[in-house]
Write a structure and sequence with these properties.
The protein contains ten helices and 17 strands. The chain is α+β, with helices and mostly antiparallel strands. It folds into two domains: about 240 residues, Nuclear Transport Factor 2, Chain: A, CATH 3.10.450; about 160 residues, Regulatory factor, effector binding domain (Multidrug-efflux Transporter 1 Regulator Bmrr, Chain A). The chain is elongated.
Amino acid sequence: MADMRRAFLFYVLVFQNANSIVGFAPPARSNNDARNSLGNVKKSFVGYSKINASLNNIDSSSSIVSSDSLKEKVTKLKRVLDREYVTFFAPMQKEYYSSTVTFEDPMTSLSGVDSYQGNVDMLASRTLMGKALFSDAGISLHKITGGDVNEASDGSLSITDIQTRWSLRLTAKVFPWKPTARFTGVSVYKVVPTNDAVGVKIMNQLDYWDSINIRSGSDGVYQKVEKGVAIKDFLNQLKPGGFQAKSAAPELPYQLLRRGDGYEVRKYPSFTGVKLPYRRRDEGFGSLGAFTNGMQPLAPALLEVQDDDTSDKYMMWPLTFTQPGETDPKVPTDATEKAGLGQWRTIKIVTLPERVVAIGGFTDASMGPVVRKADRDLREVLGRDGLIPVKGSEKSVRFAQYDAIFSMGRRRGEVWLDLEDNGHPW
């Protein structure tokens, strides 16, 4: 309880008194959904009357620029947003934002370009308060869409909403255990033509979080939720994790695409692994441990069990992954020289391509009933949010074990489901 009281006081200090932004977030899956969402909530925007006045004063007719010229300016704005995400708004190009720009996410709202920049600077630890509260902040842009230029029958031009899909992380270093909060979602930018040098302005930004704003059974459409839901989602990430079981090895790197309600979606690079069939799990660990001696394998151990329970079970340890500038991961020479020969005749070296994987976690020992239930639960929440596993995945259960085999503490287990290329928005 003391930890939760401290977390709540942290929220009050930062996000109520300082109007801090926690997340650059999600829009609807389509421009129509985004426009509908904006229409439903515009009256609640801080300073909406200022936006409305600004919109009325902006001439969006074809007398400002031609359609082709406006398209070029929107394309440049997208490049600006891309660069701002990569650098965490250092610098923020304020000329592309209205002086009365508004921001709203599930937990906070603010008005004015200076307030916008001040909050970003705090999250990035570029202010005195930010230096005291946060560290390791970063935002990754996964996708940017929208911004189409439309011409009406009277020759006037308009711009459809720009949407970004992103992941955000920041560490709250004021706590002794230094928790890292992670948010993923989409941002909707309302953009209008202007007659100044840059030619376009961002009037407002509306964010949603994947963890709380996806409407159940809607195929991934976002909706607003009560502020208390957002506060709870944030505070839950600040809780101490307790005594964790020791990881067996350094973890295979990945990019977080979504922190959803009950699951994650990650992008893994192409990697090589050493794979063998096994009957007893301890024997599989022993064989792979002996084979990879001196090779520095990675966690997790990936195991696959067929649905009929009579076919071979397989275990794989990742060895290497694709580095920046490489097209394929390098395969250790000593692994290829031994695999398939003599006592290692059942061992193979395999290379898996880059993939998008849905993850469901569990903390109990990875026994059959536990793993199969986690697999069923993951499939259910993916269907709820409109994500599609690859065809045929139901014939087996694939799960990951991170802990050293006889380690003590809270375990980390996961079930993995590859997603169809057209079964996710990334």
